[in-house]
Design brief:
- The complex is a heterodimer of chains A (394) and B (347).
- By secondary structure, chain A is α/β, with parallel strands linked by helices.
- Chain A is 43% helix and 18% strand.
- In chain A, strands 6, 7, 8, 9, 10, 11, 12 and 13 form an 8-stranded mixed beta sheet that branches.
- In chain A, helix 4 links the parallel strand 3 and strand 4 (124-127).
- In chain A, helix 3 runs parallel beside helix 4 (107-121).
- Chain B is 73% helix and 2% strand.
- Chain B contains 15 helices and 4 strands.
- The chains are: A alpha/beta (394), B mainly alpha (347).
Chain lengths: 394, 347
């Protein structure tokens, strides 16, 4: 390339950057939503879809005029799922764009940003996390969980077990979790809840996410012969290995998962072993026929005709967008300014909100909507089918 | 123009600030660093603080690896030990920050001494594996010794206070971080003008001949581990006051590797290189990210290819360094300086 071409190219890029930066609309009619998304890194398997879901819902809300007289603007950046980088990204977006709503990539970011979120930024904060810790209104008043916490998800499964157990005596349950924040989060609550419901927790097994040889763990299961075994803190591996080995040893245990291990992709990975695999999902699946899901599918057929199916993580992002819009509309209806403080108060007032079957009736108490449904894998169709109604827990 | 640089005493030859020009530039750098927080926004300040903490930690590793030749893959764990010690000091014992920071250093120092003992018998790759064990064990302790470390949820730490003023913003904590970083840089620079520092270098260059010269290998290797982990502990303690929360997830093996990368990219056995390395390893990924953000509007559909691309680029840059400038950024900096020393009369 000659010198002139370089200059032309450089000018072009500069101009494009200036346009991109100056393209913002007049401040009054715009509500900015910032997001620090895990698009790369080890959480990217979900992050890409969460981001797409949230972004699509915001576009959908704009196109359908769901927020009267305002335009929603979505600004996202990648964090690589690294807490330091996520905090930097959060601060960068706050400094550059001053949004009133933020979305975060992890429990770690939620904890790290909390002191400044509470004292300086004061914006509404949603995130990928289902950690019970972020659902504490005392320490995290600006955060909310897009659905039930992990503890609630365990509560839903345990209630289902207590109600539907057919054998003799108390149902026997095992917890199988990873040695991480994600794995251990609901365990203390689950132990207590099981006791209250008259369920015997016969063993707790801690394994590394991604473990390959799980013989020891499955032998421990075999010793106690649980009726149910709930996985937590694991996405895929070693779930298939555990189920396969358990079947080889002749265990009759029903295996169950929580949100991250309940995407339909796990059915493919389990193959024939998926038969009988169950779990809790906070949201309906993409192929279901609830009206909310149908309009989501219709929107996707229009803008992303290539996407024939969407994972449950996409629905999580979409649902978070719905919560944002609901909160904004509540604030606007009360003729208040759209600020983080008003938005967080508005979320706290959401009661029996009909989401068109995306999930059950949504009521936010303690920064979370504790509702979910139990599903069972249908191996022939490669999908999860509901086996309970929406279950509400406290 | 400078035409000669004559030194008439050994003291002058060994001075830290050797010429008036160096003194002027160091003064200018100091002034710029003082002005910086007043003009920079939140984002830049946060990055600057991150760099400050990395500098303190990486200086520790460079003393051990770059100057004494003892490789360590457990540096992040020592940073973690310092963090937890400071966090516990600040919360349970209610100590002020000026006691918690040395406390973090001291506790990490004890841990480092224990881990350093095998260094007398094992060298090179074997030592790398021995320190790797420390990393794994300490990480496990962080997440499982619930009664002390708070387990996976960690410990929330109140901000440091200086005569009633809480250091709760990036702006305020900047001064704490860089005061500590400056003091520790000065100490490290001085260390290698002393008998101890010389002994470290002798061990690095050839341990057998160092021993023949009367250097007690065991003592100095342990001492190097102690100094190094003290630095790591202080970095961890400062980190606690910066992040205000400490959880086991902050100190993975990848952080140990990042410290090694800082030291290697910056320049093994160079204080200046450590600083340049910390800046490089923190800022370049952010710059590459800014680059991908800038082209994002033009390729809205290519995000999932574009974002990982910057990690590949970053990796390629590090490999490029190893091939084309094995002495690191410090050597490049020296070359630039030499070039401008005679500029414009010779090019």
């Amino acid at each position: 390339m000659g010198r002139w071409k370089w200059i032309v190219a450089a000018t072009g890029i500069t101009a494009a950057l200036a346009l991109a930066a100056g393209g913002a609309l007049a401040a009054d009619d715009v509500i900015k939503i910032g997001a620090a998304q895990p698009i790369t890194g080890r959480f990217a398997f979900a992050g890409v879809s969460i981001n797409a879901g949230l972004q699509d819902y915001i576009n959908y809300a704009n196109e359908n005029g769901l927020v009267k007289g305002k335009k929603l603007v979505y600004i996202y950046e990648d964090t690589g799922y690294d807490t330091d980088k996520a905090v930097a990204t959060f601060k960068k977006i706050m400094a550059k764009e001053t949004p009133v709503i933020m979305y975060g990539d992890s429990t770690g970011l939620g904890k790290a940003i909390a002191p400044e979120l509470n004292s300086r930024y004061k914006v509404l904060y949603g995130s990928t996390s289902f950690s019970s810790e972020l659902a504490d209104p005392k320490t995290h008043p600006y955060s909310f969980i897009s659905g039930p916490t992990y503890s609630d998800q365990f509560g839903i499964l345990l209630e289902y077990i207590a109600k539907n157990h057919k054998g003799k005596g108390k149902p026997k349950v095992a917890f199988f979790y990873s040695d991480t924040e994600f794995g251990k989060d609901p365990i203390p609550y689950a132990r207590n809840r099981a006791k209250e419901l008259g369920i015997d927790v016969v063993s707790e097994i801690v394994a590394k996410a991604g473990a390959v040889d799980v013989t020891t763990e499955v032998l421990a299961l075999k010793k106690t012969q649980p009726d149910f075994c709930i996985f937590q803190g694991l996405v895929v591996a070693p779930i298939p290995q555990v189920i396969r080995t358990a079947r080889d040893y002749g265990l009759k245990t029903t295996f169950m998962g929580t949100f991250w291990s309940m995407d339909t992709s796990i059915i493919d990975k389990l193959g024939a072993d998926a038969e009988g695999y169950m779990g809790v999902s906070p949201y309906a699946y993409y192929y279901e026929n609830a009206p909310g899901i149908q309009s989501m599918r219709k929107y996707n057929e229009k803008v992303n005709p290539k996407e024939k199916s969407r994972p449950t993580y996409y629905i999580q992002g979409w649902f978070t967008g719905m919560v944002y819009v609901e909160a904004i509309n509540k604030v606007l209806a009360a003729k208040k300014p759209v600020t983080g403080d008003n938005l967080k108060d508005a979320i706290g007032k959401i009661r029996d909100w009909d989401t068109g079957g995306m999930t059950g009736k949504v009521t936010f108490v303690n920064n979370k909507a504790a509702v979910g449904r139990v599903y069972r894998a249908n191996v022939a169709k490669g999908i999860f089918e509901p086996v309970s109604d929406w279950i509400y827990v406290k | 123009m400078r035409i000669g640089d004559f030194k008439e005493t050994y003291a002058a030859d060994e001075a830290i600030f050797r010429t008036p020009a160096v003194r002027v530039w160091m003064g200018a750098l100091g002034a710029a660093m003082l002005v910086f927080p007043f003009v920079a926004g939140d984002y830049l300040l946060y990055l600057a603080n991150l760099i400050g903490v990395m500098i303190i930690g990486a200086l520790g590793l460079n003393i051990l690896t770059g100057f004494t030749g003892q490789i360590s893959l457990g540096h992040a764990a020592f940073v973690g030990v310092g963090s937890y010690a400071a966090a516990i000091g600040a919360t349970r014992l209610g100590l002020p920050f000026y006691l918690c920071i040395p406390l973090g250093g001291a506790v990490a120092c004890v841990a480092g001494t224990v881990i350093g003992v095998p260094s007398l018998r094992v060298k090179g790759l074997y030592l790398a594996i021995a320190t790797l064990a420390a990393q794994v064990i300490l990480e496990w302790v962080f997440s499982n010794w619930d009664s002390v470390t708070g387990g996976i949820r960690g410990i929330n730490v109140p901000p440091a206070t200086v005569s009633g003023v809480p250091l709760d913003t990036d702006f305020r904590v900047y001064f704490l971080i860089y005061a500590v970083a400056a003091a520790f840089t000065y100490f490290a620079r001085n260390l290698f003008r002393t008998r101890v520092g010389r002994a470290f270098i002798a061990i690095r260059d050839r341990d057998i001949s160092a021993e023949l010269m009367g250097i007690n290998l065991f003592r100095y290797k342990i001492l190097s581990f102690m100094v190094s982990s003290f630095y790591a502990g202080v970095a961890g303690a400062v980190w606690v006051y910066f992040a205000k929360v400490v959880t086991p997830e902050y100190f993975p093996l990848s952080l140990s590797i990042q410290f090694l990368a800082i030291v290697i990219v910056g320049g093994l056995g160079s204080i200046q290189g450590t600083i340049l390395g910390a800046i490089f390893m923190t800022l370049v990924p952010e710059l590459l990210k800014a680059g991908t953000e800038a082209v994002k509007p033009f390729f809205p559909d290519a995000m999932s290819y574009l974002f990982p691309l910057r990690d590949i680029l970053f990796g390629a840059m590090i490999v490029g360094f190893l091939i084309f400038e094995p002495h690191g950024l410090a050597e490049m900096w020296q070359r630039v300086k030499r070039y401008f020393a005679l500029w414009p009369f010779r090019s």
